[in-house]
Amino acid sequence: MAAGSRTKYALDLNDAIAFPDGAHVPAFPPDEGESWIILLEIVRDTSVARPSYQTRCKIGVPFVVALYTETPLKDRDDLRYCSPGNVLCLTSARPKTFLDGSTGFRVEDASTIQALPVSLDQLKKINKDLCERSDKGQLEMCYNCNKPAQNKCAGCRARYCSKDCQKAHWHAGHKRECKAVKALHVWNRTDWG
Ligand SMILES: [Zn+2]
Ligand SMILES: [Zn+2]
Questions:
Q1: CA of 174 to the centre of ligand 1 (A)
Q2: Where's the MYND-type domain (predicted)?
């Protein structure tokens, strides 16, 4: 591909290998060069001594997510988005059974968890929109109005034709969606092994 050619965006959040649902979570650690993301939506904040959340996966299977990181809420800036209705993304996590019999994930490394201030449905909608924009060759056009664009969002690198258009889009919802767009682009470029 020639330098400067358009980036292809074709991420499939239904890909059972890259984004396993609760019925297909791998039981073994990833092989070298292999990884996956488990997408969970927070249902309830059940934190007591340490941060923990009742969540459900994209097919509705319930999972507890408990943080055993050393400084749980300061390790990662985006953990402030750990609130009901938002998405938690766990990298290459494997489920375990907790002492109370519930099934879930014990997160020990803060770099393996990311919270996004959007719901699972919103994440799917943003992903579908990016796929459509890519198919239409619009990824390099203004994210708000599809005119030729030079400016870039500092967060997700989305393009904008002008500061005014970028501001309008930010207030129309990109403020909330920017982190999700950034994460989706990273996943789109990932080789899942
Ligand atoms: Zn524009
Ligand atoms: Zn952005």
A1: 13
A2: 142-178
Residue 80 has what pLDDT?
82
The verdict on 111 and 136 lying in the same domain is no
Mean pLDDT by 10 residues, the chain (193 residues): 55 95 89 94 93 95 92 63 95 94 93 94 98 94 96 96 98 96 94 85
Which of 78, 95, 117 is the endpoint of a domain? Answer: 117
- Taking the CA of 173 as reference, the closest ligand is 2
Range of the domain at 139: 121-189
Read off the pTM: 0.91
Token pair 């390099």: residue? 140
Residue 18, domain member (yes or no)? no
**Nearest ligand for residue 182 CA:** 2
> Which pLDDT does position 192 carry in this prediction?
87
Q: How far is the CA of 53 from the centre of ligand 2 (A)?
A: 27
- In the chain, how many domains are there? 2
Q: What is the pLDDT of residue 27?
A: 85
Dist. CA 173 → ligand 1 center (Å):
15
Contact of 180 with 30, CB cutoff 8 Å: no
Q: Which of 116, 107, 95, 110 is nearest to 186 (CA)?
A: 116
* Residue 16, in any domain of the structure: no
Residue 169: what residue type? Answer: H
